[in-house]
Amino acid sequence: MGRTDRASRVIAASPATVYDALLDRESVEAWLPPDGMRGRIEQWDPRPGGGFRMVLTYLDPADSPGKSSAATDVVDVGFAALVPPERVVQQAVFEADDPSFAGTLTMTWQLTPTSGGTEVTVTATDVPPGISQADHEAGIASSLANLASYVETSGRQ
């Protein structure tokens, strides 16, 4: 139906460690915001059918106007499927008046064991047309880099 964006990275940690970082509130708050943003989780329910609400704030809103306000993106994320330690499927809806950001974006985080740790592949489907593909793929890659740094330097491997 909509566009599909994808990014992947090998992280020097076990699939179980990476999976845990995908479902821990403090961890997600630390690594999910891409470069140029900070995040705050307002609600958290890490189970199938549960989810979270996150407010992402642009550090410099002049360069990146927000979807929800001049400086923020607010997103409600539901956990559609949780398969430890292999996959997390999220369905995200942005709070926005602009119809180009409407719809449900599905993010699948696939964790595959490799000799170097875990290959994490993020596939985003039904991406709203208001989100540019280049910006979205850069944002996913930034979040993956943050995730790698978070689990590799925290001693959680």
UniProtKB/TrEMBL annotation:
Domain of life: Bacteria
InterPro entries for the chain: ASHA1/2-like_C, START-like_dom_sf
Domain Activator of Hsp90 ATPase homologue 1/2-like C-terminal positions: 13-152
Pfam family, one: AHSA1
Family per similarity comment: Belongs to the AHA1 family.
Name assigned to this protein: Uncharacterized conserved protein YndB, AHSA1/START domain
